[in-house]
Each structure stands twice: as structure tokens, then as C-alpha cells.
Design brief:
single chain; mainly beta
């Protein structure tokens, strides 16, 4: 992704954080990560985030999703020191459509990004509105998508090692590259 696009998406994420009354320092605003997962269609498949803390034991982040933006299907596998990352998502703004492994929800609200359906297999639907939360256990395939307003999600988890996430789509590169 080029620098101009990166800054445009970051500005949209900062607007969402403000709508959710999430107060960020200037340093945090500057540090907002824009992840396009190497697919170069960030407004469709992407995620914006700020990490507050990530220690050997705990992690806290804010996630911003643009309207109808999808964070692609992935899981947090077993690591040398634990069974994998466990995370709780708490919706702060908008609506988040979370999909996890299990029995497929009939008449689900959202679908995977057009053209990428082959890389999505988890279809048990959990709908989170502001104040609602859901815990995703280690090694559970999941993906999530914002509704029409976009969404802000607070993530509370065990240690985050994003580089060890396993994505269903082999084209994905988790660590962003800005040209």
C-alpha cells in the first residue's frame, strides 16, 4: 500500500475512534497500524488497530473496521508457551459480525468479501453491538466484518504474536508493508 492510501485509511480509522469516544494520545494516533494483509484492497479486506499494551501475559488493543470491512479468517495456534492466543472482543461502536467455527448459521447477515469466498469456512454467526462481548478460544478459526457504520472493537487477550497467526487464505501477509 502506498503512503497516501495508508494515511487516508488511518484518518478514517481515527474518525471512527472519535465517534466511539476512544481517546488516543498523539503518539497512539501516529502509531495506528493499517493492515491490508498484502491483498491491496484494504477497504474491503483490512483492519486498523492500536496496541496499548502487549506483555508476556496480556494484550489490549482497539480495532477499527471501516464500513463493511472484513478482517480475514484466521486462528491463533498453539505456541511453545501456551495453547494459543485467547481473545475477548467487546464492541464499542457500530455492529460487528463475528464468525467462528461450528454449525453454519442459516440466513447469516454477512458474507465473505466477493471473490474470496473460498478462503472462508467459519460460519457460526455472533452479532456484537455496543456493550456486547464474545471470547474466542485458542486455535479457533474466526473472521469478522463491520456493518454499515463501521465498528470499533476493544480486544483483551493473552500475549499477541500476530506474526504467528494462521490465515486460511495463503495470499495473506500479516505484517504490513508501506511503499
Amino acid at each position: 500500500m502506498n503512503r497516501e492510501k495508508h494515511e487516508e485509511i488511518k484518518a478514517k480509522a481515527l474518525e471512527l475512534f472519535a465517534k466511539a469516544n476512544i481517546v488516543l494520545t498523539d503518539a497512539e494516533k501516529e502509531a495506528v497500524e493499517v493492515a491490508d494483509f498484502g491483498l491491496n484492497k484494504v477497504e474491503d479486506t483490512g483492519l486498523q488497530l492500536i496496541t496499548y499494551v502487549n506483555t508476556e501475559k496480556v494484550c489490549a488493543k482497539e480495532l477499527a473496521l471501516l464500513p463493511f470491512q472484513t478482517c480475514p479468517e484466521h486462528k491463533h495456534p498453539k505456541r511453545d508457551y501456551d495453547d494459543g492466543k485467547e481473545e475477548t472482543f467487546r464492541c464499542r461502536y457500530g455492529t460487528v459480525y463475528l464468525y467462528v467455527e461450528g454449525e453454519e448459521t442459516k440466513d447469516r447477515v454477512m458474507n465473505p468479501p466477493e471473490g474470496d469466498e473460498a478462503y472462508y469456512t467459519a460460519f457460526t454467526e455472533i452479532i456484537l453491538r455496543p456493550g456486547e462481548q464474545y471470547t474466542i478460544y485458542p486455535n479457533t478459526l474466526h473472521w469478522f466484518k463491520a456493518g454499515s457504520e463501521g465498528a470499533i472493537v476493544s480486544e483483551f487477550s493473552t500475549r499477541s504474536t500476530d506474526e504467528s497467526d494462521v490465515f486460511t487464505d495463503p495470499r495473506i501477509k500479516r505484517i504490513p508493508v508501506i511503499e
